[in-house]
Design brief:
The complex is a heterodimer. Chain A is an alpha+beta fold. In chain A, the strands form 4 sheets. Chain A has a 6-stranded mixed sheet with strand order 6-7-8-3-9-10, with helices on both faces. The longest helix of chain A has 18 residues. Chain B has one domain. Chain B contains 6 helices and 2 strands. Chain B is elongated, with a radius of gyration of 21 Å. The model of chain B has no long low-confidence stretch (mean pLDDT about 90). The chains are: A alpha+beta, B mainly alpha. At the A-B interface, helix 3 of A face helix 1 of B.
């Protein structure tokens, strides 16, 4: 197993487009790091730089303290699992899994032991004589993982491995990856745009936008204390509600809102008295009963919860709100629901950074 | 790894790998047979070859190639029946030496009032070598196929016993 250190990595393409800006990260031994962000944010580019498939424009990449910035991909002792499996269709599963070791001219008996062990871990023993076309998407992705496992690499790299699977299979394969990580205790870097994958798999998440790292932290840290508006809006489903408000005397006000502040919140916002800030409220932090009136325009029952979509005051898009209320609710369009914000997040309107000290 | 373990793994590998030795040898046998029939018809001895034997020989070449190709696929998957077929075909290839090549080598025809040997010694040796090589390939492929199929069958039986 291994530690990985990404120091001030930049990626500038020949056409001068910069895809990654000053990426810094220290990956501990056995840690599962998830790079998450919207399409085009530079997460796959970063992974490919780590794998050696893209040149690093500036910065250093250290594996177990050894600089591997200029080391060719084949000598980096890393294994990558791709979204499209990249299996050889004419080979059996056994041959696919053994292929990298066969190329290295390893002892066939050793290869056999490694392939059987990997197949056992991944539940592929019964499939070894089949061809990839005879397997389901989830099984094929497991074969791709198996091909990585047999190499016993220092670092596993996953580039959106579940994106080709349907929702049910994605959930099952996600759990398998998690079990695999626990079993192998391997250092893993995992790229996804799916926040559910990020939250459920990661030891730590790196949230990226426009080539910049927005926040690095545990899933709970990113959910509970987002560093800025981007992270707050990206992490959480349904996404956080945002309102432009002015900090008053013990109260947040806008043309349609009047939200009282606790003593702790007042303390956190003392430097913003009289200024405009952004108030963020997660849909699940909204409960029925209170002074804020939500005009309902749609109601989605999810069984245990109900998503109530509406607006506060006017029909202005900036006044839209989504509430995740407990239980089964049967609100109709036009109903008014009184709610309370039990937990609030505050963001500086200019810098978009979180105002720390929120309750 | 101990000797026993190595032997076990070697046998166990056969569950997932193909018998490429037998399969490749069978394909090689086809290749030598092609060399044979290309060589044997390359002669200008009037109407000597225009008889039923040569017709049967042409047909046999086609059947041989089909059967050996199918057998090469069969032995690849450790099918013992195809290994026996290869053995039989190998024996037939040897017998063929005593049919057409030997007779042609011994035959003399008169062309333009001159006695001419139908098959010169050099050509005879060449076609005998091709046929022999083809036969050896078939025989070795067959023997290897039988041996490996038996080993695999015994190994599978051991595994089934273990499971039971």
């Amino acid at each position: 197993m291994a530690t990985l250190s990404l120091q001030h990595l930049d990626k500038i393409y020949d056409n001068k487009v910069q895809a990654v800006f000053d990426f810094n990260l220290d990956v501990k031994d056995g840690e599962l790091i998830v790079l998450v962000g919207p399409s085009g944010c530079g997460k796959s580019t970063t992974l490919r730089m780590v794998a050696g498939l893209e040149d690093i424009s500036t910065g250093h990449l250290l594996l177990d303290g050894k600089d591997i910035t200029q080391t060719p991909a084949k000598d980096r002792d890393m294994a990558m699992v791709f979204q499209n499996y990249a299996l050889y269709g004419h080979m059996t599963i056994y041959e696919n899994m053994a292929f990298s070791l066969t190329l290295r001219k390893e002892n066939p008996n050793v290869i056999h032991k490694k392939v059987l062990a990997a197949a056992e871990i991944l539940g592929l023993t019964e499939q070894l004589n089949k061809k990839p076309a005879q397997l389901s998407g989830g099984q094929r992705q497991r074969v791709a993982m198996g091909r990585s496992i047999v190499r016993n690499p220092k670092v596993f790299l996953f580039d959106e491995p579940l994106s080709n699977l349907d929702a049910k299979l994605r959930g099952a394969t996600r759990r398998e990856i998690l079990l695999l990580h626990k079993r192998l205790n391997a250092t893993m870097l995992y790229v996804t745009h799916d926040q559910t994958e990020a939250l459920t798999l990661a030891d730590r998440i790196v949230c990226m936008s426009m080539g910049h790292v927005q926040q690095v932290g545990t899933p709970l840290e990113l959910y509970d204390t987002p560093a800025n508006l981007f992270v707050a809006s990206f992490i959480g489903l349904p996404p956080m509600n945002f309102f432009d408000v002015t900090v008053g005397n013990g109260v947040l006000t806008s043309d349609v809102l009047n939200v009282p502040l606790t003593a702790e919140e007042q303390h956190a916002l003392r430097a913003y008295a009289g200024k405009q800030i952004v108030l963020g409220v997660r849909p699940e932090d909204i409960v029925e009963q209170g002074q804020v009136l939500v005009n309902v325009f749609s109601n989605e029952n999810l069984g245990m919860n109900t998503l109530v979509h509406g607006h506060i005051g006017s029909n202005d898009p900036s006044h839209k709100i989504t509430c995740k209320l407990r239980g089964w609710c049967d609100y109709k369009a036009g109903d008014e629901v009184p709610v309370t914000f039990v937990r609030k997040h505050f963001f500086d309107k200019e810098t978009t950074n979180a105002i720390r000290g929120e309750a | 790894m101990s000797m026993n373990e190595e032997q076990f793994i070697k046998r166990d590998r056969m569950r997932f790998t193909k018998n490429t030795l037998s399969s490749s040898l069978a394909l090689l046998a086809i290749l030598f047979n092609v060399f044979y029939f290309v060589s044997i018809y390359k002669s200008d001895v009037g109407s000597y070859y225009y008889n039923i034997l040569i017709g049967a020989s042409v047909l046999y070449n086609l059947v041989f190639m089909l059967v050996v190709f199918l057998s090469s696929e069969g032995v690849k998957g450790y099918n013992i029946t195809f290994a026996y077929v290869l053995l039989a075909v190998g024996v037939l290839q040897i017998l063929r030496i005593f049919l057409l090549p030997l007779r042609a080598h011994a035959a003399v025809v008169t062309i333009n009032q001159q006695e001419t040997v139908v098959m010169q010694t050099a050509q005879f040796i060449r076609v005998v070598v091709y046929l022999s090589a083809s036969a050896v390939c078939c025989l070795v492929a067959g023997v290897a196929g039988i041996q490996k199929s038996r080993v695999l069958a015994a190994h599978m039986a051991t595994l089934e016993q273990k499971v039971a």
